[in-house]
Amino acid sequence: MLRAADGIGYCNLPTPDERETNSVVFAFETGEVWAVDTWLLGTRPSDIFVAEIEHTWAERLEQYATFLRRLGLQAPYRWSAGLTGVNHRRLQVLAAPDRMITPGWPGLECLSEQIVSQGSFGGEQSPTSALLPFFEAIYHRCGMRRPGYLPK
């Protein structure tokens, strides 16, 4: 648990004696929630596992919205999402349901150092749908369109 004069947060330590973390979330008194999670990019520094990013970030957006609703804050909630340090990483994409990924193919190379998008989440659409501009930006910056077989 983290406490400060302007809010509270949570820091996930792998062990109690660790001095570094890969995940922090902080809720300010203003209703703003900031989260930083480097785990997905830290596991394989040469890749961007976009399906895992989509799944995890959609799940987190729903959790943060639930938290804000419980505080009495009304939707829509504005979000800003981004990746940094992704230049020259390879995009790893889920294969279509009737296809397979070619073994050994490294994936398309991202040519942007940073990918950032903004939007809002009102609760009437799915978190994936709300974050779609960000997910599409990841694919775009890596030289392809987001596949149509993925959830919207």
Short descriptors:
152 residues, alpha+beta, four-stranded antiparallel beta sheet, two-stranded parallel sheet, 4 helices, globular
Mean pLDDT value: 91
| Main beta sheet strand tally, sense and closure | 4 strands, antiparallel
| Spatial strand arrangement across the major sheet | 1-2-3-4
Count the beta strands: 8
Radius of gyration: 17 Å
Range of helix content = 25-40%
Indicate the overall shape.
Answer: globular
What would you call the structural class? alpha+beta
General description of the model:
By secondary structure, this protein is α+β, with helices and mostly antiparallel strands. The chain has two domains: 1-37; 39-152, no CATH class. Helices cover 26% and strands 27% of the residues. It contains four helices and eight strands; from the N terminus they run E-E-E-E-H-E-H-E-E-E-H-H. The chain has a four-stranded antiparallel β-sheet with strand order 1-2-3-4, with no helix packed on it. The chain has a two-stranded parallel sheet with strand order 5-7. A two-stranded antiparallel ribbon has the order 6-8.
Detail the topology: elements first, then pairings:
Elements: E1 2-4, E2 7-11, E3 23-28, E4 33-37, H1 39-43, E5 47-49, H2 50-70, E6 77-84, E7 90-92, E8 114-121, H3 127-130, H4 132-141
Summarize the structure.
This protein is of the alpha+beta class. The protein has four helices and eight strands; from the N terminus they run E-E-E-E-H-E-H-E-E-E-H-H. The model has no long low-confidence stretch (mean pLDDT 91).
